[in-house]
Write a structure and sequence with these properties.
The structure is a single chain. Helix content is 64%, strand content 2%. By secondary structure, it is mostly helical. The protein has a two-stranded antiparallel ribbon with strand order 1-2. The radius of gyration is 22 Å and the shape is globular.
Length: 185
């Protein structure tokens, strides 16, 4: 098989280069990051509000129920009650927010190599599998720490997808109407 080394080098360089987001794409990134920040703030606010006797804390916890098992012994606790989601989910959501904020603040869009995503996934799968087979699972802070890189990678991939979508005009003004194809002409 004949392979041009220049072509391979060009392909490798394309994987390492980072794109810059347009102004419109950065606005969408900031908007998405703002929604993610509100979502993450709810995770922290739920136990604080419940500790003060506010019913909104219970509603927040109920809202996060479909996304997480919410077992109190697997949730982080900062002294006012367990967070609204488990340590692993907290790490995923916080990491996603970090990835989105980094992309929005710098305007640099990085598409991490799939092998990094695989490494981050495998680390989480090993921890989940250990619990399934009856081995003692990791404590909560290590679970959070293992999930954080996976969340960051997901946030970076989401940012890249948002920029691609915006820069291709899918979230911009509607494209001009085209005349339908008429096979009779």
């Amino acid at each position: 098989m004949d392979v041009d080394p220049c072509t391979l080098a060009d392909m490798a360089n394309q994987r390492l280069t980072a794109a810059r987001a347009s102004r419109t794409a950065r606005r969408w990134l900031w908007l998405t990051a703002a929604f993610a920040a509100v979502f993450c703030a709810g995770i922290l606010l739920a136990p604080f509000l419940q500790a003060d006797g506010c019913q909104f804390g219970s509603l927040l916890r109920l809202a996060y129920g479909p996304a997480c098992h919410q077992q109190a012994d697997r949730c982080l606790d900062f002294g006012f009650g367990s967070l609204a989601v488990c340590a692993r989910c907290t790490g995923l959501y916080a990491g996603g927010l970090i990835g989105l904020l980094w992309a929005a603040a710098t305007g640099v869009i990085v598409r991490p190599r799939p092998r990094w995503l695989l490494v981050a996934i495998v680390a989480n799968v090993i921890d989940v599998a250990a619990g399934i087979v009856g081995l003692s699972g990791l404590p909560n802070w290590p679970r959070f720490a293992i999930a954080l890189p996976l969340g960051v990678l997901c946030g970076l991939y989401l940012a890249a997808g948002i920029v691609d979508t915006v820069d291709r005009g899918r979230l911009g003004p509607a494209p001009p109407a085209e005349t339908p194809y008429d096979p009779v002409q």
